[in-house]
Amino acid sequence: MVLILGKGSSINVRKVLWTCAELDLPFEREEWGSGFQSTRSAEFLALNPNGMVPVMRDGDFTLWESNSIIRYLATRYGDGSLYPAEARARARVDQWMDWQSSDLNRAWSYAFMSLVRHSPAHQDSQAMEASCAEWSRYMQILDRQLEATGGYVAGSRFSLADIPVGLSVNRWFHTPFERPPLAAVSDYYAQLSERPGFCLYGNNGMP
Question: I want to staple 84 with a disulfide (CB 3.0 to 4.6 A). Which of 89, 127, 151, 169 is the partner?
Answer without folding.
Answer: 89
